[in-house]
Amino acid sequence: MTIQRLDHVSVVVDDLEAAKAFFVELGMELEGEAPIEGPWVDRVNALDGVRVNIAMMRTPDGNGRLELTKFHTPTAIRAESENALGNTLGLRSIMFVVDEIDATVARLRAHGAELVGEVAQYENSYRLCYVRGPAGIIVALAEQLQTS
After folding, report:
1. Are 15 and 9 in contact (CB under 8 A)?
2. 5-17, pLDDT tens digit by residue?
């Protein structure tokens, strides 16, 4: 058996509205929102009394999706420091290719994003950086450079 496709990445956030605004500013589109609860979600999560709200975001090309999840019950717990470094075990980052990295960083800063390091160039191919977004999520940004 083989994988059919990567459907989405799910991220638990404290402030769903702020997370949606951050990813909309990045260029994602809100695909839909829903409250989720019931015995089936309790069983899937191995938790009792799960009550969450989710927002499904998608990239403009329709190929990438990100599920933002806000837990009401049980209370979300932090597995690591909100300022975890890049070498912390677990999910490293979510990478997006953008048109103009400097303008994107400036727009995201208005939504609380902070550069983890600095914008750097990789050979003549890309300008890259990491920003820390909502709930400490590290978002990688890449601007492909024009090659002649």
Report:
1. no
2. 888 999 999 999 9
